Amino acid sequence: MINVSIVGAGQTKFGRHTEYDLRELFALAANDAIAEAGITTKGVQAIFVGNLSADLFNRQCHIAPLVADFAGMKGVAATRCEAACASSATALRAAILALESGLYDVVIAGGVEKMTDLPTAGVVETLAMAADQTFEAGAGLTFPGIFAVMAVAHMQKFGTTREQLAAVAVKNHHNAMSNPLAQFQQEITVDKVLSSRMVAWPLGLFDCSPISDGAAAVVLVRTKDARKYTDAPVKIIGSAQASGSMNLCDRENLHTLLAAKQASAEAYKQAKLDAKDIDFAEVHDCFTIAEIIATEDLGFFKPGEGGPAVEQGRTQVGAEKPINTSGGLKAKGHPVGATGVAQVIELYHQLRNEAGKRQVSNADIGLTHNVGGTGATCCIHICKRW
Amino acid sequence: MINVSIVGAGQTKFGRHTEYDLRELFALAANDAIAEAGITTKGVQAIFVGNLSADLFNRQCHIAPLVADFAGMKGVAATRCEAACASSATALRAAILALESGLYDVVIAGGVEKMTDLPTAGVVETLAMAADQTFEAGAGLTFPGIFAVMAVAHMQKFGTTREQLAAVAVKNHHNAMSNPLAQFQQEITVDKVLSSRMVAWPLGLFDCSPISDGAAAVVLVRTKDARKYTDAPVKIIGSAQASGSMNLCDRENLHTLLAAKQASAEAYKQAKLDAKDIDFAEVHDCFTIAEIIATEDLGFFKPGEGGPAVEQGRTQVGAEKPINTSGGLKAKGHPVGATGVAQVIELYHQLRNEAGKRQVSNADIGLTHNVGGTGATCCIHICKRW
């Protein structure tokens, strides 16, 4: 049983930020979250910051005390958590454990990444290091290549089509149109996705999430204290994390992520509910195929039904299981270290009826699915309306 | 109040390992710790791994699930914690919070670094990224340079001498002679330190800790369960973490680390004791001046007395306050991500009377002081004999 609530949230716009550096991006998000929680920086006792690799993107290690200080929280316990693209979900989970321990009362979980300081080739090379350097990245396999392999496996096993993959991108771009913090504000069509420049067959440019800068942060307290801070806290009722093999060659199959299945089973158990009880979800659509696999791993659809489901519109806002109402990684953007917390922030806004045109009606329970690397880490969080 | 105990520990020899890579080093340490705890890998529910920058040292991000899998623990929640040279102390602390939360019962905290894959200049450049890239490293200030500035400030304020700095190195090399896992097994003299190649005045080569490979891991459980695993667990009765400014120019002075003072005050309070109650300590002697500053920040000696104290032999094994009985970072070696947990392992062996010739007699309470960067992070842990 998890007894932690979100009482404030802040997120920068995702995209290319030439005007802010890493510490400034984090401070913008953290200070918004702090203000929304009705506290000051003095009220924060610890921060956990997700970041994939400021080391390689910005030539800066040890970012947690750096961003804490710049955001006005010098002195607090400041820890960076890293699990590739699931970094800030592991930071969120560490923050939850910290609150559950009773040693802290008010904690910030956040994440930040400033990727655009490197040229695209450098970003691709850096991200590849989140796969197995010895068996994959060192042999030339990059992330689009790895997910292309998974896509081919899914197509072969279930008959999934490129049009179904494209439907993920089309939906998520549509959702992003009503998210002012999303990187892309542009409708696209299936034809546009299919005719986009090929990256790694069957994944074209529009099957891939973009390179982004951005930060996200939430203020967390124990649920029993939450109403002291806001009239509309959002409860976290499930938090689970699992790992899997880094390299594809050690896996039982290529069309599912075992860590996602394991973590979601644990989170459902904690929250005492099942896949059918989830009203909407933010899932890790780093590539279009990843969203289809996620909706199957999470039990929303049977294996092989994820592709048809998105093509039939069953995951749109207003349909039976809205997925990535924020625009997802694909269209909201994917500053990798910030993504996990940003997913939870979408739940927070939906569960407070603050999601504007993309609001899911009668949203009561939402889930986030944040994947590190190609599935070696998966974190699941489940949130509930107060 | 902290209620966590160590029930198993494992550490590789520190030094240059050409025969093992990162994952192999960690597996050696973790599997020794697991065996000592009398469990199997199946009994471990989560691991927290400290690592400064496999990104830059080994072109590998996302190391936690990688090392977990290779050590036989695929599936467990696996999180990397990074706070520069205090990375594994923050991993230890995250593991303690995880146990205190009640969500896990058996957790591994460890750390690993494989630094010698890079040439020395690359290591120095990488470590410099743990200082402020914008205001320090980017301007050419490296770690020896930063600690040299602190040493000069300490000399100016208190009259600390180069001979006193050298006494730290001489003592720690002596202690390492009876630690088979230490990198250096060689007595040195004050003259040898003073005549060693100058790195950044007043710090010569023998004032600096070496470049090292190595790993360390401990198995942790709640104290009430500890006797199920071993007849001689070691209790952790204090765990505190604080942050300070990354760059020197934002500090009140250069001869003390505020984060160390803050974290030690908090840890003493948790453990309901004071500096005088600490029988021995492992402190962060990345440079000789750092040990002197540490013994003052921790309250073992008054400001300015740290230099005379070491010169007078007051910190030797057998004297009033043995410091760095393991050989310290200076002579045991400093594979940065492994150091924090390795410090605690020295406490574990001392408190179980397993320290051989370097055994502190009647050791009842020990303390570790692990610093990240130039003091932007400090973690303190206090351990007690069962």
Task: Summarize this entry quickly.
2 copies of one chain form a homodimer. Chain A has 386 residues and is α/β, with parallel strands linked by helices. Chain A has 13 helices and 11 strands.
Q: What would you say this structure looks like, in words?
A:
The structure is a homodimer of 386-residue chains. Chain A is 35% helix and 19% strand. By secondary structure, chain A is α/β, with parallel strands linked by helices. Chain A is globular and about 55 Å long. The mean pLDDT of chain A is 97. Chain A has helices at residues 22-36, 54-58, 63-70, 87-100, 120-128, 143-158, 162-176, 190-194, 258-271, 288-297, 306-311, 328-332, 339-351; strands at 4-11, 46-50, 77-82, 106-114, 198-200, 203-204, 213-222, 234-243, 280-282, 365-372, 377-385. Chain A has two domains: 4-119 and 212-234, Peroxisomal Thiolase, Chain A, domain 1; 142-208 and 236-385, Peroxisomal Thiolase, Chain A, domain 1. Chain A has 13 helices and eleven strands. A nine-stranded mixed β-sheet of chain A has the order 3-2-4-7-1-8-11-10-9, sandwiched between helices. Chains A and B meet through helix 2, helix 3, strand 3, helix 4 and strand 8 of A and helix 2, helix 3, strand 3, helix 4 and strand 8 of B. Strand 3 of chain A pairs antiparallel with strand 3 (77-82) of chain B.
